Records
---
Amino acid sequence: MKIYILCAAGAILFLLAGCTPETEFYWGDYSSTLYAYKKAPDDKTLATHKKTLNDIITVSAKKHIPVPPGVYAELGYLLIKEDKLKDGLVLLDKEMQAYPESREFIMKIRSKLQTGAQQ
Amino acid sequence: MKKIIAAICVVFLAGCVPATMTKQQYAPLMYTERPVSILVLPPINKSTAADAKEYYLTTVAEPLANTGYYVYPIEIVSDILKQEGLSDTETMMNVPPQKFREFFGTDAVLYVSILKWNTSYLITSGSVTVQIECELKSAKSGEILWYYNDVVEVNTTGDSGGQGGLAGLMIAAVATAIKTAATDYVPVAKKANEKIFLAMPSGVHNKQYNKDMSTIVEVRKKAEKK
């Protein structure tokens, strides 16, 4: 009897181990929608890729896991290009908060934006 | 005489058999320098597949970030590099990594050449064979922290749902052809990248950080040094 219990416990542990996600990040359709956009950049493929980025942020929050590196920044950058400066900058700040190592890079983007605005 | 033949055989075989070593042995500098962020440069495409570069660039961030590194968003990086008048990949390859640190603050730079991007069709299976040469250089010292040059094969066989007989074979063949030819290679490219980064020590954002020194990597002997 004990052996059965042990086996069952072992089996449950094995199954649980299989369920543990290998990676901590949720990426959704990131690569596919980015590729589609790169291949044929238009409003539709851009909208789809932005939807993916938004989806990654929402799902990660729901799962209580960090948003993958670069996702806040990429969406922020796209918004800034569409003249949604305020929303874009909020996202760039979020990238910096989530990944302090991105600080210099984000500052670079910001300074580029300023020189762009002055021209 | 027998001994000499045996010795020759051993030397001969050693050249073909993939070597196994620990991550610590394979890339010791990764553990001493511990880079946190990686800047991926657009690859040089030496393969015959015109799309290989795009496939690579759109699928590299995911597995590399999952390995635990901060990966600079590739789209923004290439935009900025273009604005700086640096859009030619060949030129970029000759820019020392320290320059990228000055500019972006990165710890390391990944220089990539796509050597092979071949697709093959068999009756019931298709596969993509990719050979990529990667050099991760320290943006502080310029030293090579990690190097990879190997052939990675990913199967693209269509899942026919287990239909038997000749009809099943036909369906499987059609499914494979469609899958290999028309639909996207994105998942395949991602798998190839995943396989490549298995040989890289984990970064700070991965649970295996600092725990994978004794993890075995399988690499060709020639990949050890350059």
Note: The longest helix of chain B spans residues 165-181.
---
Amino acid sequence: MAESITVDARGLSCPQPVVETKKAIERSACSEIYVLVDTMTSVMNVTRYAKSQGWTAQYDKMPEGGFKITLRK
Amino acid sequence: MFQALNRALMSRKGPILTGIAVGILAPLLTFWGNPGNMGICVACFTRDIAGALGLHRGAVVQYIRPELAGFILGSFISSLIYREYKPRTGSSPIVRFFLGFFAMIGALVFLGCPWRAYIRLSAGDLNAIPGILGLTIGVAIGIAFLWRGFSLGRNYPAKKPLGYIMPLAAITLIAFVLLRPSFGPEGSSAIFFSEKGPGSMAAPVALSLAAGLLIGWLAQRSRFCTVGALRDLIMFKDFHLFNGIIAFVIAAFVTNLLLGQFKLGFEGQPIAHTNVLWNALGMVLSGLAFTLAGGCPGRQFIMSGEGDGDAAVFILGMLFGAATAHNFSLASSGTGPGAFGPAATIIGIMFCLSVGFLMREKI
């Protein structure tokens, strides 16, 4: 099994980035999930949700624009 | 000081601070001259602007509301300063146009957007209760679609100037209200300003604009959203945005009480009717349309200021919906629903259900 999965939620309206993150958390057995988003609003929403589920979250700016959020259990 | 304020707005306190500001300013704007329980109503004000531009002939609801221009500009300036100005578009604009169209039809059957529903509640207008229940049901239906994979698709980064269009439109509106230009013989051509009725009631332009700019700024930083609040609470048990609504209602209640604007009851409330069924169903339609579009009308204005071209199209749909509501006797009045309001509400709900069922995307 892959050690990490990536959810590309760039360009999706609220609350779809969080919905996709929730699905990834529930369906995968990975301990590391990357979520790509393109607004700070989505960074905050995904981070808040992940933390409420007991994951840690940190984000980095991507060179091509947008953000990569790293979630770890 | 600005940095500390910005940190607070970006934190859990953000929606609460914004809610308090809106809750104080909205009743104050009524005190300063805006219509009753309509210190700020995003739907009503869009409707008034449609009237002022001559898109409908409702003679009592025509005024260029500076608050909404302020929303766009406040958000635009804030997003530029904090590097969140991000032109984007391409997520089913035509569907969003008609979601805005029908959200407005529903709001004008209830007589208010979600912002006004909460303001009406805080001022003792009990007709707001079926409206808020309807709003919650509409949001819940939208959530069922979201869980099933509903999506209007991705937006994509756009060229910088795309995001300048709405701020320029806002500046044009401010010029119209300040200069009051006439484009033809008096009374027969735009710009129209109501001489009686709600459209004739307005706070001084400077106060309206300042309130709009401030709220636009605060809401851009804190992501304040009256529909997202219910949505996140139901979907994720997340109180982040909902706390803002609680703060909003409490602040508005206290301010209304202090200003002598609180009146408990169903009858004789300003710009409201007592038809429970259509107060509720109008807001079911609005709540569903706003949820499918990703945010309440205020939030759509804020996002349009950040450069979101799809939110801008949603707003134009609201403008067209407002014009249609008054041209086709869909809008309610103090006596009850308009002749064709209920039929249009049913059509709108069917449209939104179709969008919800048909627009799905595998991510």
Note: The CA atoms of residues 44 and 61 of chain A lie 13 Å apart.
---
Amino acid sequence: MSGLSISKRLADALFEAAYLSLITLFIAFSVIPVIVAVVLSFDARSFIGPFPPKQFSLRWYESFLADSYYRDGLVTSLILATVATLIATIAGTLAAIALSRATFRGRAALQAALLSPLVVPNVVLGFGMLIFASRLGIIDGMTRLIMGHVLITFPYVMRTTAASLVGIKASYYEAALSLGAKPWKALAQVTLPLARTGILAGAVFGFVTSFDDVGVSLFLTDAYTFTLPVAILAQMRANLDLTIAALSVVFIVATVLLIVLLDRLAGLDAIVGRGVYGR
Amino acid sequence: MTAALLWPALVIMAPLLLGPLLALGHESLKPFTSGRIGGDDAGALTLANYAQIAAPEYARYFLDTFRVGLISLAFALLLGFPMAHFIVRRAAPVTRRLLIGGLVGTLFLSIIVRIYAIAMTFGPNGPLAGFSRMLGIAPSSPDGAELMVVLGLMNTTLPLVALTLIGTLQNINPRLEEAAMSLGAPRWKTFFQVTAAMSLPGILSAGIIAYAFCISNLVVPMLVGRGSILFVSNLIYFRFSEVANFPSGAALSIVMMVLSVALFYGLLHLVRSNWQEAGK
């Protein structure tokens, strides 16, 4: 009996060790590259030498700030992500509400079709949009980019909003109707305010998807209109200096700020959800 | 009223979904004469571009895509499940919030930045340059390039897998695990035969979603594949950027799209029909 309990305890200890080392590995693998990029961004050497650097400077930040190429890319990316997210959020939120109530045949098929850009490789979407736009005679970079980015942001917005609508009872909306509210008013004053966390989360996901996209944008940029990721990619292939590391730090800081903001506004738990047995 | 709410989405999305699809389908049937940009409009429609893809030298790109994607996915699940379990069952509220913030942050951080950071960390001058040698892989060999692609893909799928699995684990009653342990089951047995077994539909769903991300990736092979690991996405991009053979790129796009959609919805259907109410 005691032999059994010793082997059980040993097995438990082994399991615990394996469990904790996998978690440690996960964290190390996610965090170490970020630290390396941050440290390298302050490297004083003009070449990429052995890690860690001995001397530090802000030269890569200066070189990044002096480069108008990145600034142009950033402006394009911000405009593009804002416009695409706005369009996708309005259309996607309304569609999510409609689909959450709809009972018509083919509802599931319509939903799958609207979510399908999630599954199709971005390169395919970008290439298809390029050929489509050229058939329509649209050669303006920004117009093409907006078309492509609405296509890829819409599913994220609709899916996130739809998930948040699950918890909102249709009976609230119906109560407003039976109390004499017009359907539009009931929607604007009951359903939308209740779903605002989901809509906000959906919009943030959409914005990030657009801002980070490479696959679609590579096909749709032109010589004058290019997004920030496309600009970085072009520079990376031209010369792998540490300006990109400085730029990475800017991205990392912006992401951390976004997460803190999202946590304040919506709560990270609201985005992940607490589930049935969540604590 | 419900129909009115759908109209904006239909008016905007129908052309954006169907237009590129039809344009790709049409382009893929055009004959191509080298030196031109795009297909020949004068020629008769042909299936030659598809026949060309069926050649064995193209199979390599498809195989590499699906194989390397599967390896990355396996490691992402291996690391992602314990992490999700830890967040749901063990982490104190502050730790939980910090870890979830980290996961969402990693998900949001630009993929180019993440892959750049991986390249700098595991590359020849990086602090973890010895990692590949530790696994017995020469860093400059094709296997070394494959390792870098696997690491890059893992970095993009890990947060996705972990966040999806958090949702799954939160819907599993912790009392069941307590019951197993109070009946004398060891921890590891409870973990595998109760927790993991009950999470299986969620694990499969998370895996399918992550796999769709892996096989459609362009940036990772482009930046760290060193030309020896190329995915179908890279091949499509080359068709556009290097040789301007639009018909061949379009045929590749159609094939890849059909494969991805069939794989995704086929597998998801399989999971959901085997486990009622599963994978939600």
Note: The longest helix of chain A spans residues 2-40.
---
Amino acid sequence: MTVRNLIAVGGRPSTTAPTLSPGGVNDRRSFRWTDLTVYIGFVLVFAFFALTTADKGFLTVQNATSIVTAVTPIALMAFGAVFVLTAGEIDLSIGSVVALSALVTALGLRHFGLVGGVVCGLAIGVGTGLLNGLLIVGLRVPSFLITLGTMQLFSGIAQMSTQLQDVPILNPTYNTLFGSGMVGPVSDAVVWLLAGFVVAQIAYRNLAFGWRVMATGSDRRSARALGINTRRVRVAVMLISSLTAALAGMIYAGEVQGAVYTLGSNDLLTVLAGVVIGGTSLFGGTGSIFGALLGAILMAMIVNGLVLMGATVQQQIVVQGIIIVVAVAVSQRQPAE
Amino acid sequence: MSDAFPQTASAPLLQVSGLGKSFGGLRALDSIDLTIFPGEVVGLVGDNGAGKSTLVRCIAGVYVPDEGEIRVDGMPLGPHGPKRAAELGIEVVHQDLALVMHGDVAQNLYLNREIHSRLPLLRQIGWLDKAAMRAGAREILAQVGMGGLVSVRQRVRDLSGGQRQSIAIGRAVGWSRKIVFLDEPTAALGVRQTKHVLDLIGRLRDRGIVVVLISHNMEQVLTTCDRVVVLRLGRKVADEPISNLDGPTLVSYITGVRQSEP
């Protein structure tokens, strides 16, 4: 600071004249075309399969039912992932939590009955989530690295818990409640899906918690300066993520009426792809629960259509990979440097 | 601007006595005394490194001073952190603004001070009354001269630098009860927004709120404030009503050519 600066007289020249948009200000969020990625992708993929596999039953109610059933565990985890990503974290361990909760629920059902089994499954969700969250804030290590480790840890424990054996679930009430029952023409998994969507949407958009998650992921320093307990928020989102993964595992187990350590092993990328295509940023601060729902359905629809077309598993993986790259390129593109 | 600031009319709102703070071997603040009365607008000036930011951070509860005492309305601040300072009615607009870029204007104005639903059950789970907050946000925007210029639902990252500054000021003045510190509030603003901010300072004074304006713009300080406090190398070197000051005098205090208090 020089003397000349100090005696500078008068207001600074205007560099940012206030701009009045022609029609005044309307109370809308700023709009970007890339926000529509998931809708456009949805329509394109649906139209493609409707045209190419209509004769193989893509447009039947039965097929729609099977898509919705397949999407429920993915969508539930996607809702959890929206909270995690919006808070600026990531959870790589969800696939392992699925297997662990399914196996532990199955064992619990065998030894303690219905309530005991359900409590066991939920306890896995709470336990793994708290462990992830507390390690992240306690050790001050990025969630990417911590959950990379716990992904292996939980998976190993799942494999050890039954020496790789599958555990059948013979409790008919459990199976009916978690995915094997029917509500009209569709699996009762739909009830879980809708309930999960409503709860997640409200928590994300209408509760103070959702604002805190957004603030934590957008600008953690500012959030802390405003008095938000960002550590508590970060533990909370890891807990939510693990709980949704545990619930997904329990629904898988109810659907196939048994648990095996391979459950959920391919889900992580499907979930993250659906969430990211649905408009949630990998860098924190923004996200969409509804977008995640559509993204998850989109991923399930792609698999379903490819199966109907007679694609091999390998071909399905290739197509999924291409679609993820295209969708991410459109929706997550960074501004030019 | 009023020459006779109400030194005898009422009890001091802010009383700083014998404040000292060191960082390692550096004496950042040395026995600072400062008394501010309700309704005053006080300029706080000094060269870079003079101790302005350290003083503000001590009063805002961010730093705990090594010596001395800070009282707000007679209540000691104590070593209780920023939350206590906010409870006592102190608000600071920092230069880095502490905004949440992905949040919209209403969110930034109400983060961690949310208005909750009036329904008891919903209130319990933290259900937000977004309509009330948007309405409140529109009022605050009008107060900082941005009514009709930005929408309360616009994201802060999409606003200009000047608009962001105005939001940060709006957040402080929308909540302040007693004392607002503005750290270079008009540095990024255009002429029109600068005028709004200076008008706003006048309106705050009329409400009995103390404004402490930290600025490098001497003309602005001389036309806006009632009194100017000059810091130099951690010490208070001048504390004068505007009537005793002009630009060159102020600069000579800042640069150390002149000293009024040994």
Note: Chain B is about 30% helix and 25% strand.
